[in-house]
Amino acid sequence: MQPVVSKSNRISRAIISGLRAVLLSTASLGLGVSGATAQTVNDDDNVASQQLNLPQDVTVFGKSDPNVRKATAIVNGRIITGTDVDQRLALIIAANGGKVSDEEKDRLRVQVLRNLIDETLQIQEAAANDIRVAPEEIEESYQRVAGNFRQSPAQFDQYLRAQGSAAASIKRQIEGEMAWSRLLRRNIQPFVNVSEEEVKSVVDRLNAAKGSDEFRIGEIYLSSTPENLTQIQANARNIIEQIKKGGSFQAYARQFSEASTAAVGGDLGWVRPAQLPDALAQAANEMQIGQLAGPIEVPGGVSILYVMDKRKVLTADPRDSLLSLKQLSISFPAGTTKEQASQKAGTFAEAVKGIKGCGQANELGAKIGADVIDNDNVKVRDLPPQLQDILLGLQVGESTPPFGSINDGVRVLILCGRDDAAAGGAPSADQIMAQMEEERVNKRARIYLRDLRRDAIIEYN
To answer: 460 and 114 in contact (C-beta within 8 Å)?
Structure first.
């Protein structure tokens, strides 16, 4: 089940985690792309035509140039300027390390404008319901974001300007999220109910599924119609390609996903395949941690799927074990050749081979000139994947094989102790109810926003 966050903290967490995703490149994640095949949804391709009573033979009067890209817009009288678009676009480019082609920038600019239109509609609808976010609240959230980067607001302002963005763009995004959240809490949440029988049914299903796989999933959802499906799929493939090049999945999810999870970087939390649409479930079952798949057709659009983690339902995960470690390391002087480093590493490996427990680590370190560092309460899952399996297979007192490089030096880890992970328990009934209520609120929120788009007066410049 997805972790449940109190309503009072949900917005601040969404803002901080989302903005971190936008502003920080995550190329170091090393995301791979899976070749999962999209599963076709059994929709009638002619449904839209039937609903609109369109003729079979259409004669078009006039021309529509698909290459004309509108840069700015006026939404119900509120102007979205080219500067607004540029500053928001700069955040995405920064998240990709600045490596975005001119063609991709043009495509991103169009999507950013769409996002700003939705954001404007949300702020306007909140104001129409006498919901306004005070400047002091926005400033307080902005200060938390700056603090999350270990910077003062003034330093963060300077950082944003260096990226081609501005504090005003971040603050507007904060205002939109806070205003929309409050509007949903007033107009939708009070009318969403979950019965005790529904909660009990979820608990029963969880217990029945104990030991089966569940995944922590990230999703980027793009809505489509039969008429524009091909274009939306092309957009999804472009997003995948940018992530392959080192772009941030969370940043793209935040800017482009039309699901309610966009505010938290597309994070669906922990889900079992049975909770996902069939096409997504099939893809997840075929994926490994860190892989992407898509575009995958789902009802109403397409999805890009990212498997962030995997575990067994209601079962203790060894990777949640806490380790007590000692690290012995040696470094190489500047100019050390590969042959010299290999010889020194071999001597180091031979010296630590016979070590008997952590009690000898300090003595041995002093003898061979190695640095010794104590590391307590290290969670296995926080270590590099290559080391996780090795450490899980060690007994207390044993050490890993030497690892490292010429630049980083060579080191070993000695296992001093391990506290095994506790068996996973089912979430409480209150947690399950809160999550189900939130899912239903989010579903109605999408319908709410769709209606706002339908009634909006939008002029493009």
So the answer is: no
How confident is the model over 382-420, as pLDDT tens digits? 888 778 888 888 888 888 888 888 777 888 888 888 887
**Ranges of each domain in the chain:** 7-46+69-315+428-460, 318-419
Can you tell me the distance from the alpha carbon of 312 to that of 294, in angstroms, rounded to the nearest whole number?
24
Q: Residue 391 carries which DSSP code?
A: H
**Closest listed residue to residue 394, CA positions, set 367, 355, 347:** 355
Is domain 318-419 given the CATH code 1.10.10.60 in the classification? no
| The CATH number of domain 7-46+69-315+428-460, selected from 3.90.660.10, 3.30.870.10, 3.10.50.40, 3.30.310.170 | 3.10.50.40
Q: Cα–Cα–Cα angle for 289, 295, 299, nearest 5°? A: 110
pLDDT, tens only, 144-175: 888 877 889 999 999 889 988 999 998 998 99
d(CA 188, CA 375): 48
Instruction: Go through the chain and tell me how many residues it has.
Output: 461
Burial of 344 (0-12, 13-18, 19+ CB in 10 A): middle
Tell me the two tokens of residue 150.
Answer: 């270990």
- The answer to whether 312 and 318 have CB atoms below 8 angstroms apart is no
Q: How many CB atoms lie within 10 A of CB 91?
A: 23
